[in-house]
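User: Could you go from structure to sequence for me? I need the amino acid at each position, not a summary. Structure tokens:
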């Protein structure tokens, strides 16, 4: 194989903590892709909140630096919206990450934005708590806006 420069696709994976299994599967898929792509000079770099090293700043500000560098933003939502980050503007880390990626997209055409919603049991929707209500409102807004790619997915064990 000729010594060619490595091309890197930087992906930021955003989700609240209720999708730990799906985040694990995403990492396994990226590892498999990287093994397959090794011979053609490509690498997928998957970034997420759990990989961000601590710094002398508000933790979400450090995570946001990763969002600022991605070429593809993948958001996963299910029943939880996420935790507040100390920002007066955003209600969760997911919202702050998404809005930063969306702002970049509108200003300069990147990153690509993909949002996936894990199917929610209809019984939970009927008696949704605050977290799920925020997820459902966000989903409805995305369905209306048509600004980005979104899709529903089934349980990871299916």
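Assistant: Here is the amino acid at each position, in order:
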């Amino acid at each position: 194989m000729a010594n060619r420069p490595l091309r890197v696709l930087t992906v930021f994976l955003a989700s609240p903590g209720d999708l730990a299994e799906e985040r694990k599967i995403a990492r396994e898929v990226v590892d498999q892709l990287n093994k397959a792509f090794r011979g053609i000079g490509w690498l997928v770099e998957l970034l997420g909140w759990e990989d961000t090293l601590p710094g002398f700043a508000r933790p979400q500000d450090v995570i946001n630096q990763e969002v600022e560098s991605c070429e593809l933003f993948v958001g996963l939502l299910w029943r939880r919206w996420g935790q507040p980050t100390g920002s007066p503007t955003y209600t969760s880390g997911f919202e702050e990450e998404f809005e930063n990626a969306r702002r970049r997209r509108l200003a300069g055409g990147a990153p690509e934005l993909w949002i996936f919603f894990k199917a929610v049991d209809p019984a939970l929707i009927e008696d949704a708590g605050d977290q799920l209500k925020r997820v459902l409102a966000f989903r409805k807004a995305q369905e209306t806006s048509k600004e980005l790619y979104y899709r529903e997915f089934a349980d990871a064990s299916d």
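One structural detail worth keeping in mind: The beta strands are 7-14, 42-48, 72-77, 112-118, 149-153.
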